[in-house]
Amino acid sequence: MSKNTISRRVLLAAGATSAVSLFAGPWKHNRVWAQGAAKPLRIGITADASGMYANSGASDKRGMMMAIAEANERGGVLGRKVEFVHIDTETTAATGSRVAERMISREQCGFLVGAVHSGVANAISQVAQKYGVIYINTNSSSPTEAGQNCHRVKFVFDGNGTNFAKAAVKSAIERFGPDWMLLTNDYVWGHDTAKATKALLAEYGGKVMEEVLIPQGTRDFTSALLKVQQRKPGVISAAIGGDDQKAMRQQVAQLGMGDKPAWINSQQDWDDVYGLPVDNLFGVFGTTWYYRLDLPGVADFVKRYQTMYPETAMRSPGNVFYNGYMSVRELLSAVERAGTTSNIAVIKALEGHKMPARDRMQHFDASIDADTHQVQQTIYLATANRAPKEKDDLFEILSHAKPDDVRDTDSAKLCKLEPYDKTPTFDA
Amino acid sequence: MIDLLPHIINGLTLGLLFALIALGFTLIVGVMEVINLAHGSLFALGAYFALTVIGGGWFSGTPFGAWWLSLPPGLRYVLALAIGPALAGLCGMLLELCLRPTYGKPPLYGLLLTFGAALVVEELIRLVWGTGEQNLALPQAINSAFLLNGMIFSTYRFFAAGFSIVAIAAVWLFLERTSTGAVIKAGAHDSEMVRALGYDLAKLRLLVFGFGAALAGLAGVVMVPIWGLRPHVGVDIVIPAFLIIVIGGVGSFWGAVIAALLVGLAMGITGAYAAAWATMSMYLLLIAVLGFRSRGLLGRKSALEN
Fold first, then answer.
1. Cβ count near A337 (within 10 Å)
2. Which of A151, A190, A273, B44 is at 20 to 30 A from B248, Cα to Cα?
């Protein structure tokens, strides 16, 4: 047989391949539902699995997954099973954009949820607004997220830098004096948090001796810490996040600088300090939740976490997990209240929604600000726990502030939500 | 006006730590002409193995684990300092065996393979040790602070810098004063002649790669108490290490040491005046050096240029 002739087997294989391609198409994912079955509701989880916030991203995702699992145990939402798809956003804004595009246009996601890094959250929300897809920013705490970068489709569930600064600055000036130094991560969250701190210092009579900008990815903080020793401030306000903060904490502890001067850390994510020695956990910092709050529902919530994630090294849930869980739970309950997955109806169900303190396991009722879409909630100030009741009992909660007392009024002035009629309609 | 002396001291100690990181990297590039992008992974592995040795690892909770943890912390730390790098060296040898099909091919093949290996190792670390931040416990004797010139400095940082000096000297003596070292250096310059003289080149390459990997592991054990330990810690060091060997001259031992000290000084002094530029100073130094000497400070023509 000549080498150039096509065998019958090849011809049949080619024919079969063509037939399959015509039916399914190589680029289109077809799904066939059993007769009468409702199409699942798909949530796109935009959590970091690599980069500076990989650890927090993993907690964020676990929180969302627990809320989804519980919703499905209750029979789903509007009779529809809730599914999720996760793609790593790599703690990179450009990746966040790509992931959001893909989730909406190819993965058929009806909602996007998740973020720790403010730059990533902002990138995702721009894509989400373009399509009209509701996006829940679970854990990124730059004031810009519900300020100049707010969007009609975006809801911000974490406390922001201004909320935490308002809870801490005034009492720190009274206690440790007016001379402050700022260590600021050189990106949007760091700058915005520092800006809020500076405004409050000006308001309460404090002064900034110097602000040291710390590039993202810094592993050696000794230069900055030597500078702190040379300037001798009364207080250092640090807005350093993720892995940078972990490295900084280790070096501060090695220098024995944790107690003097006083340290104010904007927000302390549980994931950033879990497993570190108590010496590394210095200063006063903010958080939105703690697993040992003496409130109804907390113990049961911790138990559910431990049951669902028996293999997870982090044996107690933290604020990042909590925000991930709460945001998905509130999103799904808003869909139930709206009685539809149509985006405008769900947005309206979320806007202004009040959440009882008991449901959220916090001290005060919370609400979703209708004008900025940020959750106004209890803000806790904490420090290292020198008398822990158990291994994970890292924080001592010092105080809790009412949502109205720490409200971010400056960012609210900059937020201009797109009108409903300028937001594309979208039905998940 | 700030006092510059503490920042110069800080820059020099940082430079010595960078030198330790770059040493294994430059050895592998110099002798084998492989740009090992998995160098950071070997750095991380050395630290994670040390973590297991210090903390008892998978034996914790067993009678053996209890006995192990009853040993003095100093002894466990010294053992970790030996076992961590040794195991990283073995992993390096395994990587070298995987690299063999790429020898004689364009450098891109080795580059891609080591890059892939780096990704695999990072995932393996996540699987075995978890994704969380870990803490490499140090003996109290070296984990404190002291006053120098009115400033507080970390005892451990100076210990690590001193350790780096000893390690650099030991590697130099090994390369310069032993017959094995002479063969390794000869292999870098004229591998055909080394083969003709009856030396097993494959074994030599395996040895060099293992030795370079062990140095990476050693750097990991020394550095992570300062930088912290997490699965992608290796990524943090590949870029500085790569920049240092380029600034120093590919394959040049003293070039790498001098470049590391310069990078440390640049970062230390920039950190004093413009911290936001501290990381950038590395790249500016690279541009400045390559502008005048395209092969780096002490670099010679390398097969990578072909």
1. 14
2. B44
B170: left (phi over 0), alpha (psi -120 to 50) or beta: alpha
- Give the rounded distance of the alpha carbon of A399 from its chain centre: 23
Residue type, A75: G
Residues 6+ apart with CB under 8 A from B56: B65, B68, B69
CB contact under 8 A, B275 and A314: no
Contact (Cβ atoms closer than 8 angstroms) between residue A376 and residue A407: yes
Strands (E), chain B: 145-148, 151-154
Closest to B72 in 3D by CA, of B62, B83, B63, B80 = B80
How close, in Å, is residue A414 to chain B by CA atoms?
Answer: 28
CB contact under 8 A, A229 and B228: no
A290 vs A308: CA distance, rounded Å: 19
* pTM > 0.70: yes or no: yes
Between strands A179-185 and A207-214, the pairing is: parallel
**What is the rounded CA–CA span in Å between residue B91 and residue B213?**
8
Q: Is B186 exposed, middle or buried (0-12, 13-18, 19+ CB in 10 A)?
A: middle
- Site from B226, B233, B263 to mutate, A interface, most A CB atoms within 10 angstroms: B226
B132 with A271: Cβ contact below 8 A: yes
**Best residue of A218, A226, A309 to probe chain B, by most B CBs closer than 10 Å:** A226
pLDDT in tens, chain A (428 residues): 444 444 555 445 544 544 444 444 333 333 444 444 578 999 999 999 888 788 899 999 999 999 999 999 999 999 999 999 999 999 999 999 999 999 999 999 999 999 999 999 999 999 999 999 999 999 998 899 999 999 999 999 999 988 998 888 888 898 889 999 999 999 888 998 899 899 999 999 999 999 999 988 888 898 899 999 989 999 999 999 878 888 898 889 888 898 888 999 888 899 888 877 888 888 899 999 999 999 999 999 999 999 999 988 889 999 999 999 999 999 999 999 999 999 999 999 999 999 999 999 999 999 999 999 999 999 999 999 989 999 999 999 999 999 999 999 988 899 999 999 999 999 98
Q: CA-CA distance, A240 to A233, in Å (whole number)? A: 18
CB atoms within 10 A of CB B178: 11
d(CA B113, CA A188): 36
Q: Please, how many CA atoms are within 13 Å of residue A35, restricted to the half-sphere of its CB?
A: 0
Taking the CA atoms of A172, A178, A181 and A183 in sequence, report the sign of the dihedral they define: positive
CA distance A214 to A218: 7
